[in-house]
Amino acid sequence: MLIPPSIHLPIEILANTLIYSYLQSSFCLTFVTETDLAVNLPSNLSSMRIQPNDSDLVNQILYASEKGCSDYIIQMHEPEDFMVAFEKVNHLGDIRRSDKKLIFLPMQDEIYNASVLTDMLSLKQTSFVANILLVVPAVQSSDDCEFYDMITHKFVGHDEEIHKPLYLDRWDSCAGHFQKAMNLFPHDMSNLYGKTVKVTAFTYKPYVLLDLDPSLNPIGRDGIDIKAIDEFCRWVNCTVEFVRNDGYLWGEIYENSTGVGIVGDVVEDRADIGITALYSWYEEFRVMDFTAPIIRTAVTCIAPAPRILTSWDLPLLPFTWLMWVCLIFTFFYASFALFLAQRSTDKIFLSTFGMMMTQSRDDSSDTWRIRSITGWMLVTGLIIDNAYGGGLASSFTLPKYEPSIDSVQDLVDRKMEWGANSEAWTFSIILSEEVIIERDSSSIRASAIV
């Protein structure tokens, strides 16, 4: 029950105060509670209630997150279970917000140990979330009043400090207000106070150049992506630490949410940021975030030069295949006409072939019908011979080449394999529904050295 007629427990009054002070701008609020929590919500704020189920907690949180309910109030005996599931949801979900707020409330029973909240700050999953607020019961100084300390983690600063608790304020149930009126979500990410940001990359000109000569470059690195990272850290005051995984280049992500290379370093949280000419790949976007693009680039495929056609078919090049078919048809048609004229099959094919080669007949006793057909065939042969001779001279003067590869269709038609130093070159086209693109992407042969 989230909207009761009245609020009576101090923790419920405090929860209501936190909602009205810090969560009014939220689209939707998710309550992950093992018991009923009585609160009154603002009219513009929708909510969802999750009864935690250890075996299905990831799916429960994922469902709420995909509905836009990505701010959470958690009240569980084992809040660590929520953080583990929450980190998995961050990789699985499509709805992602960078300013999610998590408020952990203590359980209201005598056997509850409030240290489980502060112990949660040492978790690796907690170090990825800036806006965490722990409501921890304080040592009571009065039997009638309850006090709650507002605690978060330092999050920023040097590595040895980020997991330390940061005490922000104390709430007095009798006074009904906070003692210091501090901002309970102080990390606005504008100043990280030297926090280490791990960046994974490998040398790939002109985007990333590592291990440069210090005499040429004082920081030993350069490139388009490097400059973007250095400028980002200059703005927010962070320290860049590079994670090297050169052997796998861009790498890949496996079905069990592990991976190698740049994308593997990011998905397994070995690095916070991945650079080196990364594209907007769909499969990778499903498990990690992408920034806005900073440059448009394209890939140039180098194909073999057209080869000179072999010499055996040079005599056939002056005419197209359709023209050769027409010539064969003309040969048989003229032979048939000559057969009808002389009423005999004697030397008709030889005579027809000779006349098409502009060779006259040697029979002086031919009738006018035969001479008429012979005259037309000699004229036809003269035209064909001159056209063929000119084309043949051109073929011998200028060598003929096979068709060049100018398009993806040409690449597929030639059944040519193409190579690259990583399968990442196919990530942008591998999901294409076009048959040509699908066939082309399947013909890659990736190797570490090309």
Automatic annotation (TrEMBL):
Domain Ionotropic glutamate receptor L-glutamate and glycine-binding positions: 195-305
Keywords in alphabetical order: Cell membrane, Glycoprotein, Ion channel, Ion transport, Ligand-gated ion channel, Membrane, Receptor, Transmembrane, Transmembrane helix, Transport
GO cellular component, one term: plasma membrane
Subcellular location: Cell membrane
Database matches in Gene3D superfamilies: 1.10.287.70, Periplasmic binding protein-like II (3.40.190.10)
Membrane topology listed for this record: Multi-pass membrane protein
Name of protein: Putative ionotropic receptor IR41a.2
Organism: Hedya nubiferana
